[in-house]
Design brief:
Elements (H helix, E strand, L loop, with lengths): L1 H6 L3 E5 L10 H13 L4 E5 L1 H11 L3 E4 L1 E3 L5 E3 L3 H10 L3 E5 L10 H12 L3 E4 L3 H10 L3 E3 L4 E3 L4 E3 L1 H8 L5 E4 L5 H10 L3 E4 L1 H4 L1 H17 L1
Parallel strand pairs: 1-2, 1-12, 2-3, 3-6, 6-7, 7-8, 8-11, 11-12
Antiparallel strand pairs: 4-5, 9-10
């Protein structure tokens, strides 16, 4: 697939902002994506039809589209339905990412949703996983990419990648995109040297609110020590 070749061994920048963040909105995210492109990014991951459309038009880079849906109970699922996937593709998404966690709280059955997206929309499907079991089940159903999106570890400053999970996912024979908790270039380098297809970095590049929080935590830790 041409789009997979285009992102191979590259950096994918996740351009997303929550509704309560100052940079929320398609134009802010498009500006972030343009900056990422000028910095050498191989692709963009973004949330929402409008963001996909604007970013694709402005950058022309491969776009991984997602649609985050939150229930009234506050439970979040990524692209839980075919109709949302179709909207993303119509907006210009080259790849659609789908939440494949075995314990996801809602969404269409994965054994129906994943093959339908591939068959009817003609785009690669990226499986957002939390565990090796998630990845195994998605691979059995049939996906084009496995991603460690939800598979992160906690540390004193926030989150970090789960390299043990990545090692398990790489055994499945499906391209693996390392995502989740990447804050340092050395971590991205390590993931690629392990054999990951590409690396997604989001908050460390495009979320100044989260970057500021990490520095504040570090400063408070130093002052309390």
């Amino acid at each position: 697939m041409n789009v997979l070749r285009a992102i191979h061994q590259g950096l994918i920048v996740s351009c997303q902002a929550l509704e309560d963040e100052p940079l929320h909105g398609p134009m802010f995210m498009a500006a972030m994506a343009r900056a990422a492109q000028k910095g050498g990014a191989a692709g963009i991951r973004t949330n929402g039809r409008h963001e996909v459309e604007v970013i694709k038009q402005i950058t022309g880079l491969p776009v991984i589209g997602i649609e985050k849906v939150t229930s009234t109970e506050g439970e979040l699922v990524i692209t839980p339905s075919f109709s949302l996937a179709r909207d993303l593709v119509e907006a210009g998404a080259d790849i659609v990412a789908v939440d494949v966690r075995q314990n996801r709280p809602f969404g269409e059955p994965l054994h129906e949703l994943l093959p339908r997206i591939r068959r009817e929309l003609g785009v690669p499907v990226m499986a957002d996983c939390a565990t090796a079991e998630d990845a195994q089940k998605a691979a059995e159903i049939g996906v084009d990419i496995l991603a460690s999106t939800f598979g992160v570890k906690a540390n004193d400053l926030g989150l970090e990648p789960d390299f043990e999970l990545l090692a398990e996912m790489l055994k499945l024979g499906v391209p693996v995109i390392a995502e989740g908790g990447f804050w340092y270039p050395e971590q991205a380098e390590r993931a690629l040297k392990m054999g990951c297809w590409a690396v997604v970095v989001g908050s460390a590049i495009t979320r100044p609110l989260e970057i500021t929080k990490r520095f504040v935590r570090a400063c408070r830790r130093a002052s309390s020590g």
